Structure formats: structure tokens, C-alpha cells
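tool_call: predict_structure(chain=1)
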Amino acid sequence: EWVELKAGDAVLLPRGAAHVLASEPGTKASPIQGYQVAEVCKNVYCMSNEGCRPGTLLFFGSMYFNLDGLHPLLGMMPDVMRAHELEAYEPGIPHLLEAMAREVTMERVGSGGILARLADVLAATVIRSWVERGCGDSSGWIAAVRDREIGRVLAAIHLEPDRDWTVEALARMMGASRSGFAERFATIVGETPAKYVTQVRMHQARQWLVRDRLKISVVAARLGYESDASFSRAFKRVIGSAPSHFRAEEQAETRQAG
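tool_result:
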């Protein structure tokens, strides 16, 4: 359904869902391939189209999370995250956008890299503003990151997925008893701490297998499994396919490239 965007609004599509931007509902949209593109600096482009109306400035971009696309953290996010009147609640945003505009127009050395970092800050600010402004429902990921103590536990798990996280260790981090922590975590996040940790670890393992091309035995050892077989069973239970499946895909792509 159509959503009207007003000046200062920001929208983030965590999973890159298909979408259309238009001046009004029902307007025929032009494919992005039909725009004239001029590279301003590395990875930064100015786009124009004969049908564009003057007087509107649209700043947009794409980014890649350093997470597996099926990662539970991304799975908890909604398809669309909208920060209403972002500038009103985040006074630093206008200055950030001005800095990005200067980097584009001045074409200085290293502009592409600086813009990428500024874009990271902008995206993180959109997420934070959306969470703090009460958008979305109050369960799952949103409730978890709003909760200072549970949010700290989640951050630790995602920062070190290869650590041997026990319920006791996580409970100590929160300063609670094992049973009290487990109950609170399950209520807010929607699943047990052990299951959540396993999901994070297996999605990290998939990254290591596909992106870093590590051997199954290396990944199993890094995650503390005593055997490749026990790791493979846990991996298949979470991901749905055996780790050898991803290794075979990677080897096939290598042969095709050669």
C-alpha cells in the first residue's frame, strides 16, 4: 500500500524489498535503468530523468549488512522501517547530510570512503530513531533492543558468536538468576536463549563457509564442536541444509568461473 513521505522522513528497507517511489499514487514509475547516471566520485552517482520534477531532493542509497540475509536479527526487523520527521528528533541529521553533500560536490580525495562511513551512521540513526519513537509493535526484536539489559545481552552474542555462551554466563551479564533471565529473555525475544545463540552461531557459520570459504572442520572447531558430524547436525537443523551443500555450491561456482 502507498505510504506518503514528508520532508524529513526517512525509510530503511532492511531486506531490500521491491518498492516504487512516485510523486503520487498511481503515477507510472520509470525503471531505474532509464535514468542518466553520472559518477560523482567512487560509488557515488548523480541520477537524472527527463520526467523528474524540479524542487524535490531525494537522497537514497544501498548498503550491505555484515550479516547473513537469513540472520535472526534481520529476520526480526520489519520489511519497512520509517522514521517520521527524522530531523525534528535527530538534530544532528541536517549536519550529517550537509557533510555528505559537501563530500559529493567537492570531489575530494577519499570522498567515496568518507561517504560510505557517513551512510553507515545515517542508517544506524534511522534504525535508532525508529526504535525509540515507538514505531512498530512492542514484541520481538523491537522489544529486545528497547530493553537495556536484554539488548546488552543480544549485542554480546552477536559480537562474539563463536564464544561458548551458556545461559549462566548470559544471566550473569544481566545480573539475574539463571531461571529469571531465561524466562525474561524468552518472553521478550520469543525464544529461549540457547535456541537464539544456536541460530546466531549457525548463521555465522554459513557466512564463514560461503563468504570466507573455510573448511567445515575449521568452522566446527571454531565453534567448539567435538566433531564435524555434531556440527553438521546442528547446522542442518537451523539452516535447513547440510554445510556440505554450501561447500559444494562454492566449489561449483569456482569451476564455472575458471
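agent: The domain at 141-257 is CATH 1.10.10.60 (Arc Repressor Mutant, subunit A). Proceeding to next step.
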